[in-house]
Amino acid sequence: MSKYRSRSVTNFLLSLILILCAVSLSVAQKTVHVKTYTRKDGTVVHAHDRSAPGTKSSTNSAASTPRTTSTSAVTTNTTVVPATRPRTYSITVARDSQGRIKRSGSAKHAFMQTHPCPVTGATSGKCPGYVIDHIQALAVGGADDPSNMQWQTKEAAKAKDRRRIPA
């Protein structure tokens, strides 16, 4: 009887090992879908699938592949790096070397000339407790023009910025 019992224990252990291997293999191949979102700096991250947290990517990518897309007025550079997402920027907005949206000082000055500070009435310099806000954000194609600007309290601006940060 002990011969049969040791054989059944061995079979049980082998089947348990096979099950654990199958489960760990299926977990390693799971992917998570990420929806399109916009980062605070205006970078658009398109929808994609990625490996589950804590697992290694099983894709066998070659070296990074630079791609350049050009329209008549604007050029967008996208670099695809293995195990990362493509990074694209809004093509309607000029950016500086750090990737931040360039702002027009002359547009801000023109706005202040036609819309004095709500607190002091000044048409130049600082306005205590207020910032100049773009009604339609530059990152989503809003114009850096006085017609797209408004005075906004610093508290309201902070609240608006928190709403724009993707979860």
Name the beta content range: 15-25%
Q: Which descriptor suits the 3D outline?
A: rod-shaped
Which structural class fits the helix and strand makeup? alpha+beta
Work out the helicity level.
25-40%
| Tally of helical segments | 3
Distance between the termini: 61 Å
Using only C-alpha atoms, the radius of gyration works out to 27 Å
Order of helices and strands: HEEEEEEHEEH
Task: Please give the oligomerization state of what you see.
Answer: single chain
Average pLDDT over all residues: 74
Give the number of DSSP strands: 8
Domain tally: 2
What strand order characterises the main sheet? 1-4
Largest sheet: 2 strands, antiparallel
Stretches with pLDDT under 50, minimum 5 residues: 59-84
Give a written overview of the molecule:
The strands form four sheets. The chain has a two-stranded antiparallel ribbon. It has a two-stranded antiparallel ribbon with strand order 2-3. The chain is rod-shaped and about 95 Å long. With 167 residues, the protein is α+β, with helices and mostly antiparallel strands. The longest helix is centred in the first third of the chain and has 27 residues, at 2-28. The chain contains three helices and eight strands. Residues 59-84 have low confidence and may be disordered. The protein folds into two domains: 2-80, no CATH class; 105-164, no CATH class.
